[in-house]
Design a protein that fits this description.
The structure holds two protein chains of two kinds. Chain A is an all-alpha fold. Chain A has seven helices and no strands. Chain A has helices spanning about 10-20, 35-65, 70-80, 85-90, 110-130, 135-160, 165-195. In chain A, helix 2 packs parallel to helix 7 (about 165-195), helix 3 (about 70-80) packs antiparallel against helix 6 and helix 5 packs parallel to helix 7 (about 165-195). By secondary structure, chain B is mostly helical. Chain B folds into two domains: about 1-90, Rna Polymerase Sigma Factor, Chain: A, CATH 1.10.1740.10; about 95-180, Orthogonal Bundle (Arc Repressor Mutant, subunit A), CATH 1.10.10.10. Chain B has helices spanning about 5-15, 20-40, 45-60, 70-85, 120-125, 130-140, 145-155, 155-180; strands at about 95-100, 105. A two-stranded antiparallel sheet of chain B has the order 1-2. The chains are: A mainly alpha, B mainly alpha. The interface between A and B is large, with 38 and 50 residues.
């Protein structure tokens, strides 16, 4: 019986075994740490300056209504009857069923950022649960768009964890989520005053 | 006193401890530089890319959750840095010519692996076309599976296997040429 050779040739195996034996570590010709340390210092200074600007950025994120994902909801809301009617219409959704955006394993969002979001969450959930079904649907659709964006960015970050652009985009989705919460919560306050 | 584990040092570095990060650098720089050197064939570029890799890692540490080993995570950043550089004008310092099979054969620039490079096999790997060289480095030297290497390089698993097959053929030929000279 003739045996048909299958898989790599024996000399290939020997060659690849030699390849596998090559040293994994190669020492650079000079110490690269001083250059890295200098750049980390610059990075830390930049981060500190971004950190000082963070409350302002957050406030801007809460106030500026220029997010396309929120446009639909905004238009629907503007064309509706006065907000009082929305509140009176009641709803059948339990606040706990309205889930916040879940940021994936590759997210660099800090605990303080998520805590800021969670501080608004309960009020947002309660308000959304009481909205008229049509408005509620629109709000939840916008939340789903933000979730989808967060998921896509997280998947991309898994492939390219060091991408500054992707990390910025992720922060952008987080700000959109905060904007949505803020608008919904603020709308309730307006309703109360308008009676 | 118990020596600090790598994950403990990673946790401290995530908290902004540059000393812990330097210790991680000392431990991993050889592998990262080796990877960059073999993928680029250019010592100066490999040193720059090694620095870029560690700076990027520092920035991305808050997002590192330990799903893969720190070494794998670092290598992924290094491969990304190499691929990004190849797309930039800075990375196009490679001579390209066409082989008998019509495919591009790339020979690294003159200073890539000098005559003092002790291992003929290493020099032969340095003359492989880029795609074949990448898979030999990641799969052959650093032991990543085809799936892992494909994920790092952003190509299909089948492409990795085909590149490895081609690399084996070319390496055999070049090692024979080395032996004949």
């Amino acid at each position: 019986m003739t045996t048909i050779p299958f898989g790599p040739r024996r000399d290939d195996d020997a060659l690849m075994a030699k390849v596998a034996e090559l040293p994994k570590d190669v020492a650079p010709s000079r110490d690269l740490w001083p250059g890295i340390a200098a750049r980390l210092g610059e990075e830390r200074r930049a981060t500190a300056s971004r950190g000082m600007g963070w409350p302002a950025a957050l406030a801007a994120g809460l106030l500026v209504a220029s997010v396309s994902a929120l446009l639909t909801w905004g238009l629907v809301r503007e064309s509706r009857t006065p907000p009082d009617a929305e509140v009176l219409a009641g709803g059948t959704v339990a606040p706990a069923d309205i889930r916040p955006v879940s940021y994936g394993a590759n997210s660099a969002l800090g605990a303080d950022q998520l805590a800021a979001r969670d501080a608004l969450l309960a009020e947002f959930q309660a308000r959304v649960a009481r909205l008229a079904p049509e408005t509620r649907e629109s709000v939840l659709a916008n939340l789903a768009i933000i979730q989808k964006a967060a998921d896509e960015i997280d998947a991309a970050l898994a492939r390219d964890p060091a991408s500054g652009l992707l990390n910025e985009l992720l922060v952008g989705t987080y700000q959109q989520e905060l904007q949505l919460y803020s608008k919904v919560v603020t709308a309730r306050d307006g309703t109360t005053r308008r009676t | 006193m118990r020596a600090e584990t790598e994950s403990e040092r990673v946790a401290r570095a995530r908290g902004g401890d540059a000393g812990a990060f330097e210790s991680l650098y000392r431990e991993h720089v050889g592998r990262v530089y080796g990877l960059c050197l073999r993928m680029t064939g250019q010592p100066a570029a490999a040193e720059d890319l090694t620095q870029d890799t560690f700076v990027s890692a520092w920035k991305s540490l808050p997002g590192y959750e330990g799903r893969s080993s720190f070494s794998t995570w670092l290598h992924r950043i290094a491969v990304n840095a190499v691929l990004a550089t190849r797309r930039s004008p800075r990375g196009r310092n490679e001579t390209s010519l066409t082989g008998e099979d019509g495919n591009d054969m790339e020979l690294v620039a003159e200073d890539a692996m000098d005559e003092a490079t002790p291992i003929d096999l290493e020099r032969a790997i340095g003359t492989l076309p880029t795609g074949a060289r990448d898979i030999v480095v990641l799969h052959g030297i650093y032991g990543y599976s085809h799936e892992e290497a494909a994920g790092m390089l952003g190509v299909a698993v089948g492409t990795c296997k085909a590149q490895l097959h081609r690399a084996r053929q070319l390496l055999r030929e070049r090692m024979r040429m080395e032996a004949a000279t």
